[in-house]
From TrEMBL:
PANTHER family attached to this UniProt entry: BLL0828 PROTEIN (PTHR38590:SF1)
InterPro entries listed in its UniProt record: DUF559, Endonuclease_DUF559_bact, Restrct_endonuc-II-like
Domain DUF559: 17-121
CDD domains cross-referenced by the UniProt entry: Endonuclease_DUF559
Protein name: DUF559 domain-containing protein
């Protein structure tokens, strides 16, 4: 299955959609900062979505063209490592790349995080078709 086709056509319960919308409104400072650099194709021309539902899970940020899921981890993730591992396995089963970044790192080294995201996108991005004559 191609990463860009995972979201289309999936069944999503209305409660999950409502929760995803709530998460978009109630962003953490790290999510707010990272989104300001990802939105509108600002990072390398890649299109990201935030709070994207995939297989019943809500990904913090998702780039369909590269199959990259970015998860920002706050203190709660220290208590839910097993659940996060299961979630990562489900997403990886769809050939998605999961990049986990601690909130503190986004807040203290956003340039480094953006460089890592860019490298992941370039590594997982399909080759750009060449035009005739190139």
């Amino acid at each position: 299955m191609e990463p860009r086709h995972i979201v289309a056509g999936q069944f999503v319960r209305e409660e999950k959609v409502a929760f995803s919308r709530q998460l978009r409104r109630d962003r953490t400072p790290a999510e707010r900062l990272l989104w300001s650099h990802l939105r509108g194709r600002r990072l390398g021309g890649f299109r990201f979505r935030r709070q994207q539902i995939i297989e019943g899970y809500i990904a913090d940020f998702y780039c369909a063209e590269t199959g990259l899921v970015i998860e920002l981890d706050g203190p709660i993730h220290e208590q839910q490592a097993e659940a996060d591992g299961h979630r990562d396995a489900v997403l990886a089963n769809h050939k998605l790349t999961i990049l986990r970044v601690k909130n503190e790192r986004v807040l203290n080294d956003v340039a480094g995080v953006l460089a890592e995201i860019t490298a992941c996108c370039r590594q997982t991005s399909p080759p750009t078709p060449r035009h005739r004559g190139e």
